């Protein structure tokens, strides 16, 4: 039964990812919104809902530290695991110009988070400032985004694009929850510790919607959706998830988070402009190297 649930979760993830990408592209074409903006907002924020649910639930359960580990771990996975896997399957076109603003925003948010972590606590005031910063940035993106070029292909009817997008997001979230639960139970039957399950199954599991969406987007040659998804998710994770969680309950910071973990999260983000400037894309070799780096990080966390 557990293995059937695991398989059903995988199927739900990839069907949901396919529907979400098609719906998002349909909405973008209908309103002539650049796919990067759609990926940054609707897709990026929507696929981050599992992280938000896990973090707020952890705060309400009296373990808000999980929120920090969830956010930092997911941000590392978003770049190294998700974009790495997508690039191995299908190289991701990544010109620097369209995503320069968003990369800068994610880098600044990561640096700000590092400073906050070093202070020892994410209080309600800082949480409110994070949520406000995200709202201002999102408003700026929507106002400043140039209209997409018209295409010869007729866009999907709006009702169908919205139905596919919303339906795909719901299926993604259900698939991620089913997969995390079944994988956790399978791991327990083999005697895997709770700590290792948390570092691997749960952390990766909450990033599975982003993984499914990025892979499908790369396969459909919608690289802007894949990149916008990752950048939007990372920004949402820091500013919205930690901000909202801190508003629920102030988060004391374990000193370890201000060390290797946040440094690797920043280094992973800096990989994107470097690859964009040098090659203009994330190729299979670079994707494989990103996956290897993520695997090394998971091994390091497992033995530390």
* Sequence of strands across the biggest β-sheet: 1-4
Q: How big is the Rg?
A: 18 Å
Tell me, briefly, the overall form: globular
Number of folding domains? Answer: 1
Total beta-strand segments: 4
Average pLDDT taken over every residue: 79
CATH fold title: A middle domain of Talin 1
**Low-confidence parts lasting 5 or more residues at pLDDT below 50?**
147-152
Alpha carbon gap, first and last residue: 33 Å
Listing every helix as H and every strand as E from the N terminus to the C terminus, the arrangement reads HHHHEHEHHHHHEHEH
> What's the story with the biggest beta sheet?
2 strands, antiparallel
Given helix and strand content, the structural type is: mainly alpha
Query: Can you name the CATH architecture?
Result: Up-down Bundle
Helical fraction: over 70%
CATH class: Mainly Alpha
Q: In CATH, what is the homologous superfamily?
A: NCX, central ion-binding region
**What quaternary form is this?**
single chain
Q: With helices defined by DSSP (H or I, 4 residues minimum), what is the helix count? A: 12
In terms of DSSP E residues, the strand content is: under 5%
What does this structure look like?
- This protein is mainly alpha-helical and 304 residues long.
- The chain has one domain (2-303): A middle domain of Talin 1 (Up-down Bundle).
- The chain is built from 12 helices and 4 strands.
- It has helices at 2-31, 35-46, 49-60, 65-89, 96-119, 124-144, 158-189, 194-205, 208-219, 223-248, 260-278, 284-303, and strands at 92-93, 121-122, 251-252, 281-282.
- Strands 1-4 form a two-stranded antiparallel ribbon.
- Helix 5 (96-119) runs parallel beside helix 10 (223-248) and helix 5 (96-119) packs antiparallel against helix 11.
- The longest helix has 32 residues, at 158-189.
- It starts with a helix and ends with a helix.
- Residues 147-152 have low confidence and may be disordered.
């Amino acid at each position: 039964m557990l293995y059937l649930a695991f398989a059903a979760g995988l199927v739900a993830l990839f069907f949901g990812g396919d529907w979400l990408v098609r719906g998002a592209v349909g909405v973008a074409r209908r309103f002539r919104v650049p796919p990067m903006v759609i990926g940054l907002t609707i897709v990026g924020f929507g696929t981050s809902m599992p992280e938000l649910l896990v973090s707020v639930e952890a705060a309400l359960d009296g373990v808000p530290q999980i929120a920090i580990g969830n956010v930092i771990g997911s941000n590392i996975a978003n770049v190294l695991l998700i974009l790495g896997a997508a690039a191995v399957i299908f190289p991701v076109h990544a010109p620097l110009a369209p995503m320069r603003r968003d990369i800068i925003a994610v880098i600044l948010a990561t640096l700000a988070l590092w400073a906050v972590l070093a202070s020892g606590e994410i209080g309600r005031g800082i949480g409110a400032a994070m949520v406000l910063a995200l709202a201002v940035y999102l408003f700026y993106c929507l106002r400043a985004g140039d209209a997409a070029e018209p295409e010869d292909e007729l866009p999907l009817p709006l009702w169908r694009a919205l139905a596919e997008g919303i339906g795909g997001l719901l299926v993604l979230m259900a698939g991620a929850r089913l997969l995390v639960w079944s994988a956790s139970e399978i791991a327990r039957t083999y005697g895997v510790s709770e700590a290792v399950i948390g570092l691997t199954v749960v952390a990766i599991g909450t990033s599975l919607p982003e993984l499914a969406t990025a892979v499908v987007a790369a396969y459909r040659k919608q690289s802007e959706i894949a990149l916008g998804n990752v950048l939007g998710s990372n920004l949402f994770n820091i500013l919205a998830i930690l901000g909202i969680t801190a508003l629920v309950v102030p988060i004391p910071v374990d000193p370890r988070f201000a060390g290797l973990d946040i440094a690797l999260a920043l280094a992973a983000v800096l990989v994107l402009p470097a690859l964009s400037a040098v090659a203009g894309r994330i190729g299979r070799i670079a994707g494989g190297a990103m996956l290897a780096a993520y695997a090394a990080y998971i091994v390091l966390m497992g033995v530390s």
